Each structure stands twice: as C-alpha cells, then as structure tokens.
Predict the structure of Cupin domain protein.
Amino acid sequence: MTERAAELAQKLIRNFNEVALDHDQRAPLYDTMCARLGPGTVARKLGASIDTVAPGKMSCPYHAHHAQEEMFVIVQGTGTLRVADERLPVKAGDVIFIPPGPEYPHQLINTSDAPLQYLSISTRDTPEIVEYPDSDKFLATAVLTDGTRFQALQKRNRDLDYWDGEP
C-alpha cells in the first residue's frame, strides 16, 4: 500500500473486529464491551460504535434523543428492544431505526444466555437533549464555538426561576 493509501485508510476505514474495546459495567444491570469507531476519522455528522452486551444485561439506560437519529444493526445474538414502553424481540441481521423525539425512548437488552453484539450508527447533531424516562432526568450537550463540549445532567424536577442567582 502506498503512503497516501495508508493515510486514506486511516482516515476512512475502521474494522470493528480489530478495535480495542472498553468494558463499561454498572452492576447489577449494565455490562457491555464497546468502542467508538469515529474518532480519528474524517466523519463529521456520523458516529458509530460496536457494543457487545453480556448475557442478561443492558447496554445503557432507557432514553430518547431529541436531535440525534440512531440505527442499530444486530451483528450477533438475540435480545429485546425496549421501545415506546413495548418489548420487541431482535436477532442477528435485524436493523433498527430510531428517529429523534420523545415518542421512541429505547434500550437494548440481552435477554439470552449468549453475547448480543450490535453496531450503533447515529447522527451527531448538536445541541442535543436526551431524556431518561425511568429516572426522570435529562442530559443537555452541545459543542461550543471554541470546540469544547458543554454537558449538563440533571433531574427534571430541579427547575429554577429564570432570574435565580442573577444580580
């Protein structure tokens, strides 16, 4: 491969079978091995990650995005998609489409006795509000003009008056 070809491959290609995985665990419900695939690439509007959820565990809390659209491709195993207060069976080969908005809170659960692996693809729209219906909290994120990231995670019932703390 030429030097230019190697440079292009580094910017454009990721193999999810070859990336280093991070173990993300919060007992007793959450246990996943995951890797973000986009960092270091030229992707600007898309994000991708590979996740492998342990048997009987979940990958993340039940949530709904208000800006980002997501797609999940089940690569291996079986499980359950919890979505809009329903539970749908999923299996290898299924492609799941989740639009932004509060109508489709979602969560993938490994309800089997074998690993559940899926590829997540999403837009990286910002600013973003993510709601967590089970815990009544929300996350606000944005990339600021200087490139830094703003993030605030709060319970919904902690409303303040607009003038609170102002002189």
Notes: Residues 3-126 form a domain with the Jelly Rolls fold (CATH 2.60.120.10). The first strand starts at residue 22 and ends at 26. The chain has a mean pLDDT of 95.
